[in-house]
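User: For this week's homework, look closely at the record that follows, marking any run of repeated tokens, and judge whether sequence predicts the tokens.
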Amino acid sequence: MPLTREINISVVSGVWNSLMSSDMPDLNVVPDIQAPKMSANDVLHFACKNAALGALKKGLLLLKDAVDRLEAGANPQKIEADVLEAARHVDFAFQLSEAGGRMQSKEMARFHIGRGFSELVLSRIDSKRPMKQAVSDFERATKLDPARPLYRIILALAYWTLDRQKDAIASCEDAINIDPAYALAYYLKGLYHQERGETDLAHDDIYWAVTLDPDLYEEKFEPIMQAEREAEAYWDDMERRPEFEATLQKREAKI
């Protein structure tokens, strides 16, 4: 089942901004290597780790540029070579990270996300390309860094691409359990429910998404927002009435 353009833009921007800003160490800082304090193996591991992070950063930059052009309407066939080049950088980074980078779990999760994401973009260009590796990488990333709701969103995107609809929605719910104010998770889950014809669930999620992050608002959501505002006004009015409190007390007495 194809995803909407809005989902692609939101997820791509979220992933790239997260990986390329505070998550990514400053690769331009030269370490203070002192022979008495660092063994040759320590220096080798440090160099390997920095090389891996540098290759990952280069691959993600190339990937972001290709995706931007794809979203702008460029011919997918003309971009495929650039995406493959980005994927080669990411894959090389992954190999370096495994070879001797002494990565921590959270650091290793980023390499899985990078490799999986490059596969995900390639599958957008070539629909026959298998998604198994991408899903495996995303699942592994959520295990290595379970506190990152963004990784659950990326996994949801991969599940939906494979028509694993329930898994995609569950992954969005996992993101919300990690961060109840994570607007993108509500937004994506709302669009998924909408695709499935689950209108009431979709409206609830979209309303919360826009309430939490007004930047997610789209003109097509206005009927949903208006209906939810009217419903809230109705219940606010009902709660102010004396008979409402009396009715609640009667129900509690029966329970």
